[in-house]
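Please think about what follows:
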Amino acid sequence: MTEQACRECHRIVTGSNCSVCGSNSLSTDWSGFVVIIDPSRSCIAKKLNIDIRGKYALKVR
């Protein structure tokens, strides 16, 4: 199964629904990603409004 990015929260998932926000609006057209390990201490997570650890796409089309 290919990785898809959620258009709502940018989480990269392999299923048919986003595991973070529950959206089914997913795209295979995404680029760049960031892996957040500790969102409470990450400046990047704060900048991107991410509060759950995981892999997130930087740009989703």
